[in-house]
């Protein structure tokens, strides 16, 4: 009884308390050129223009959380007003609170994923906690570039990874149908929803089965692609304004000329290579390799319109590599 309670307390400390403290340190303990968001009293106008306008769910939540924090600071938390005002604005505090909720969601999902068909080190609970903490650290260190959409998008992505693995293990269609709905909803958050399709394809795609004329995996992937394209194109058809664009800008020249962006690229390459080396089983390396192949469109996009210095763009690939390295994959010859 005491041992069980001790495990629950330790799990609570590792999965919730420690991650949220690290997250708070990244938002309030460190400064960067991106923390000018601290001076924004209201939701910034740029979130409703350019490509950001298509991220409707984060924008809506940002407005609501900013209003909530304003009312709290001038109401129930008025005794704390001086401290809160000194360390941010209603928008920034609301951004932290909103992202904290989804960050804890990410931590809980990672904990659940690492318990699914674990192999190697993760069979030991202490080793599993270290790997979980490493994953959390990767999320935290990318928060020097805080946004209102990336943490929510990461939560949706990890939820999609969990659903894919549950479908792999149980073959219950309910997980597949939920995944379809999740991709449609998460496309309203950020375009990284397409990576859930890449992961699903990496897990189930088998070239040998295609040579035999078994195209079941193709028919499984099509609904996922449709679930992504319908809201993606629908938003761009509905939100037609002069200030909205498909991309914020093209930064490919800056990515390969700026020392900061080159440092971000080298960081991502080294980390991903290190994680690939952790994949000791042939099946795990195969899944990881296929995942990168199906993620090529995403990698091309962040090369053209993203900034390598914002390594949060590589975060889904890094976390997927860690998950892939320690998951026991079944043979996927049949769906």
TrEMBL record:
Where on the tree of life does the source sit, at the highest rank?
Bacteria
Q: Which UniProt keywords apply?
A: Membrane, Transmembrane, Transmembrane helix
Q: Does the keyword Disulfide bond apply?
A: no
Q: So where does this one cross the membrane? A: 12-30, 91-114, 126-145, 151-168, 175-205, 217-239, 260-276, 288-309
- Protein name, UniProt field: Dolichyl-phosphate-mannose-protein mannosyltransferase
